[in-house]
Design brief:
- There is one protein chain.
- The protein is α/β, with parallel strands linked by helices and 489 residues long.
- It has 14 helices and 19 strands.
- Strands 1-5-6-7-8-10-16-17 form an eight-stranded parallel β-barrel, surrounded by six helices. A three-stranded antiparallel beta sheet has the order 3-2-4, with no helix packed on it.
- The longest helix is centred in the middle third of the chain and has 29 residues, at 213-241.
- It is globular, with a radius of gyration of 21 Å.
- The structure holds 6-O-phosphono-beta-D-glucopyranose.
- The site of 6-O-phosphono-beta-D-glucopyranose (BG6) has 15 residues, from loops.
Length: 489
């Protein structure tokens, strides 16, 4: 007997910039993803610009734009997010397939620059507002509950260039206007909201040369503080507009273990949890900075701009549910590491007990149970796993079928872990697998790193018919949902 509650929200997840395409249609403004090229497992994605004299140039993530330069789409580069998988035009077809699988929920995001093309306008772009209204109505037609991420890595490019992005306190007000528009326009259509996708990535994965580290930490902690305040204000407004709204945080949940039983590794691992995972959850779920925050700031000489009003907002805008992504785990050690593995905004020592995907992500379903039990014990809030999945190569057979047994095996083991966690008392209310339809990878910009139950005929250069087809996992997940997690065969 499985332990999933009868109204468990089974479904799948995507993000606007990774599926929609239509990057410059119906008044949408550009976001950072639109000036980001494709990459591979071994080569980075580049961000492209024109310098003050009009010469083309590239940056990697985290590098600053040179003085006088501006972000630009350049010839001779391919920008995979411009096309995504064309969901903007094909959402009806995609939702019919989700409905065929029996989805109870679909997690998606609203592109900020579709509603506010620059980000600092007073009034939203009507075409953008109406597009999402039709999208939510279509989901409701299929009895699929929308679960909406307000910000999924896509601050409008104009705000990045003209305001310095989240380094600027003004972004709080721009975000709040955007969020308020969403709550108001889609009242009655959307009830489940997430304020910021993987808010902890900014502080969890800082890459800077030693002499620039303090500066990088200062900026990262400040950006996240502004996002905390923006999130807390949005939660309060969301509740005021519709008390039915359930609003969650969203944390990138890479569980970590100490690599050895050396007490120094055990302590280091605990501190890593605090910095990378708990810091954000604690503020968003408990409403104030935790005691260890001062230690983390002191380690890098961080001094934050925090006002009295900010603290009141944090306390008044705690979330209703804890949601997170879970793909893999990592090891933490104070000893020298010879074999480093990386994935999902993190890296650590190789774990000899685990297997790794072609992209170096550990397969660790037990880590999901560990994470769920630890987090529920800490916050005692309803929990949702809003991303979980395996990015892998798919082979299309001559008859068009796709036998992705490895993906089925991955999901089966993670679902068993969730079942165990529920049995042990965790109030798990939903599960949305990542990339229920193939998407553009956020990390590498590839399509060949496929996650979907639904295959999309498009390659890394945008060639293909964009036709959709069902993989073996499609039929398997349909059975899982129909049996409420009972039939995992
Ligand atoms: C999460 C993001 O970090 O992981 C998604 O919220 C992303 O946007 C997913 O797509 C998988 O990562 P990747 O790099 O394989 O796309």
């Amino acid at each position: 007997m499985s332990h999933f509650p009868k109204d468990f929200l089974w479904g799948g997840a995507t993000a606007a910039n990774q599926v929609e395409g239509a990057w410059n249609e119906d008044g949408r403004g550009p976001a950072m993803t639109d000036v980001t090229t494709g990459g591979t497992v071994n080569t980075p994605r580049y961000i492209t610009y024109l310098d003050k004299d009009g010469n083309p140039g590239t940056l990697t993530r985290g590098q600053a734009l040179p003085e006088g330069a501006h972000y630009a789409v350049l010839d001779n580069y391919y920008y995979p997010n411009h096309l995504g998988v064309d969901e903007y035009h094909r959402y009806k077809e995609d939702f019919a397939l989700f409905a065929e699988m029996g989805f109870k929920t679909y997690r998606m995001s609203i592109s900020w620059s579709r509603l506010f093309p620059r980000g600092d306008e007073n009034e939203p772009n009507k075409a953008g507002v109406e597009h999402y209204r039709k999208v939510f109505q279509e989901l409701r037609k299929h009895n699929i509950e929308p679960l909406v991420t307000i910000w999924h890595f896509d601050t409008p490019l104009y705000l990045e260039e003209h305001y310095g992005g989240w380094n600027n306190r003004k972004l709080i007000d721009f975000y709040v206007k955007f969020a308020t528009t969403c709550f108001t326009e889609y009242k009655g259509l959307v009830r489940y909201w997430l304020t910021f996708n993987e808010i902890n990535n900014t502080i969890g994965f800082i890459r800077a040369p030693k002499d620039k580290e303090d500066e990088a930490y200062q900026a990262a902690y400040q950006q996240v503080h502004y996002q905390f305040v923006a999130s807390a204000k949005a939660v309060q407004i969301g509740h005021a507009i519709d008390p039915q709204n359930m609003i969650g945080c969203m944390i990138c949940g890479v569980a970590t273990y100490p690599a050895t039983c050396d007490p120094k590794d055990v302590l280091e691992n605990r501190h890593s949890w605090e910095r990378k995972l708990l810091y954000c959850g604690d503020v968003q779920c408990l409403g104030s900075y935790p005691t260890y925050a001062q230690r983390l700031w002191d380690e890098h000489n961080v001094h934050l701009d925090i006002t009295e009003d900010d603290l009141i907002d944090l306390a008044s805008g705690t979330v209703d549910m804890y949601t997170f992504s879970y793909y893999m785990s990592n090891l933490v050690t104070t000893h020298e590491v010879k074999d480093m593995v990386g994935g999902n905004f993190s890296h650590g020592a190789r774990n000899e007990y685990l297997q790794y995907s072609d992209w170096g992500w550990a397969f660790d379903p037990v880590g999901l149970q560990y994470y769920l039990e630890l987090i529920y014990d800490r916050y005692e809030l309803p929990v949702m796993v809003v991303e979980n999945g395996l990015g892998a190569y798919d082979t299309v057979e001559e008859d068009g079928s796709i036998h992705d047994q490895f993906r089925i095996d991955y999901y089966r083991e993670h679902i068993k872990s969730m079942d165990e966690a529920i049995k042990n008392g965790v109030d798990l209310i939903g599960y949305t697998t990542w990339g229920c339809i193939d998407v553009v990878s956020a990390g590498t910009g590839e399509i060949r790193k496929r996650y979907g139950f639904i295959y999309v005929d498009v390659d890394d250069e945008g060639n293909g018919t964009l036709d959709r087809s069902r993989k073996d996992s499609f039929y398997w997940y349909k059975k899982v949902i129909a049996s409420n997690g009972e039939d995992l065969a």
